[in-house]
Amino acid sequence: MSVKQSTREAVERNLSEGLAVRRRLPGGGLLQIDRPLPAIIVYRKRADQIDEATEKLLASATSALVAGVEDDITEMVDTVVGTEAEAFGKCLTLEIWAGPEPESDPGPDSLPRFVIYGPEREDLIPLVESLQNELCGTELEGGPFDVVVRRGPPPAPPGMQPLLSESRAQTLGTILFGLEIPPVYRNPSTGEAWPLILRKFRRDLTQVFRRWIYGFLHDWTTLRPACHNEIGSHSIVPVVWSIDEQLAAVADSFDFLLQVTPVNAAEAWQSFKESKYEKAPVLQYRPVPVEPTLLKRRLYAVPIEKIDDPALCRLFREKQEELDRKITLIMDRNTPRFVHGSIQLFGAVDDEFYGFAREMLENLPPVPKEKKEEPMLDARAFAALAEAEIASFRKQLPEVDSTVQIREDMYTGLMVSRGSVLIGANLSIPASRAEALVQHEVGTHVLTYWNGRAQPFRQLYSGLAGYDALQEGIAVLAEAFVGELSRDRKRLLLGRVVAVRLMVDGATFVETFRELHHTWGFPARTAFTITLRVYRGGGLTKDAVYVRGIGELLDYLRGGGKLESLLLGKFAVEHVPLVQELMARKILVPPPIRPGYFDSPHMALIMEKIHSGQTLFQILRDKTMQKR
């Protein structure tokens, strides 16, 4: 079936005006162009082949045409490539199709094969080699692959005519390519997709196409994107917003850390002290406010499989899996299963990390404190400082409405929950540590909550999967940026790493306390607090992520990464490339709130040391992390 002239005219008009195009074709096909781009990828369905998977490779393409079996798309291709070439000088047309099924008993040297069909023109050899290099240099799911190049007349799938004749292509100003793709992503018997393989294969192939098209645009057209990911789609289909909302609703229905934090910490310390540190305290917790099994039912009713965008699909699926683990942990609270779930969620402490923490503690022995009175701040005084910092955020982003709450059920702790600061009623901190704690809790955790709220996806403020390590790494470095990462603070963080390892290795509460108190010289109350945090819920390994997060952050910064881009929301180091991609695609926006410590001269000094290549060991021993 030919596409109506009126439809073609509407497409040409939209492209000429810089508008998006989404048109169903009469034979069941679809033309989808996010915005004018002088490159289009085409796939034609075949009547003699059952293949429900290959067209899904184009589901997230910025400019794609999928033709139904009965669609005659010659004139539509003519319209699209002619319009784009006229606007930008040239247009690239790539047709893809699935190659033959692999042999049932392939030889030892037989590999799945990509076949590139490129033009014979000598001036186009670099473009042919560019696609070959991209396919060879990418670790595609299902690989390794062989890549073969065949240069000749306009290509077409077996049994079909080329989309355009060579003369017509030259007249229109388009360059024709074909790519035969090894169908490792589908069931050879049914043509249906292998879901996990297809998801990863599509993600990898999308990146291949973007990098290749990026080079073409710079060499052959007037379009000059800043990076290859800028070529990606700028639009989001409505189902993504719905899925984001549903996942956020599940995440907001419970507060994991509150659920695993004891409500009787003060009484637990008194009973432990009265037992002369010989009897582990009995810890009590808040009632669980939700029915976990119903929550899981809601969680897995979220149809993440409907997300075609590879980057968003990965982020949302990881979050779904993390929420599942957190719900399981709440169900397993105070059981032997809890620690195993915690390791899945937050990781453990391997031998190298454990050795590092012990070595650092040996190099940072406790120093006898001078007998002098230091001003102390109570909960109300600290709350005033936190409120002042939040007020500075409100000047940059008026919708900031975080609260500061003094909580009777937290005793001495500090916590940020959904953008608000929770302070234990009996909090008492040295005045010299106040600014560090403000920047840790407010300058990092509250700030990234509201910067995440400024993004279109709720996941950026509730937190992408595994965000804790990077968040805590930034928060601890923020303490250093204001000159208040003291020797005692470093020892405390390292002591938590040691305690996590001891707990996982099977040490009892009392044994871990003794190791911290007697071997490493922590005061009894401090050793108890570290131990309580690690043994809460049944064994929580989260406290090891602070030091691990500093290491990840330093690696990122030394590699040329910018700290500002990490403050856009709550995410992990491994998500940085995806966040950068979504920024390039104009789906995410720059963070609106800037932390106060960016103006600190101490920050500039420490950043200079980081960029000079100092190791985590050197950074933690560096006395300039504390201005006193």
Report on the architecture of this protein.
Strand 6 (113-118), helix 3 (125-137) and strand 7 form a beta-alpha-beta unit. The chain contains 23 helices and 13 strands. The relative contact order is 0.08. It is 47% helix and 11% strand. It is an alpha/beta fold. The protein starts with a helix and ends in a 7-residue tail after the last helix. The protein has helices at residues 5-16, 74-88, 125-137, 166-172, 195-220, 238-252, 256-259, 265-274, 292-300, 310-331, 337-346, 351-363, 379-396, 431-453, 459-462, 468-481, 487-504, 509-519, 524-535, 545-558, 576-584, 601-611, 616-621, and strands spanning 21-24, 30-33, 39-44, 63-67, 91-98, 113-118, 146-151, 174-181, 376-378, 404-407, 414-417, 420-424, 428-430. The strands form 3 sheets. Strands 1-2-4-3-5-8-6-7 form an 8-stranded mixed beta sheet, sandwiched between helices. A 3-stranded mixed beta sheet has the order 10-12-11, with helices on one face. The protein has a two-stranded antiparallel sheet with strand order 9-13. Helix 10 packs antiparallel against helix 11, helix 16 crosses helix 20 and helix 17 (487-504) crosses helix 19 (524-535).
